[in-house]
């Protein structure tokens, strides 16, 4: 499974999870910046040099509440008309969610420890890596309707899926302190422009193989 060091695990036995689609209610902070390195994008993919990251609090989901951190070193522009994330780093605090991510969408989920509030000060850590975020909302809330797509490299092509999202959001400034074997190279510490999903509902559909 395509991943960086921070998303590698020797564990293979995970509690079973439901098949997609997955509906969920979420709170999240999302941030992005110009890509620092092309070394961690999928090999051979055409990309946009934008790194996208997020910390998410799933207040409801088919496997219960859980928290998540994920990042895409670059956005793919070679799968469909809309740029999509390619996610080699993703961690959660639910073993059942690990199964769901790996089985349904080829996402290299691993277990991690989480603390704090994704809309304030939050932290995630596992093994040799850690990420701390401080999210500060800017301005009024506004209604949001959109989607987030991703395309994971797999044998024979890419596993492509999308999450639809609607809710309330506001702009944010996000301070990030990231440490890890690869994270400091492509998801460096700093202060970035971002977005808070103050409250939202989302639905992540089934993945399809695109050659």
UniProtKB/TrEMBL annotation:
It comes from Rhodococcus navarretei. Residues 1-20 are annotated as: Disordered. This is Acetoacetate decarboxylase family protein.
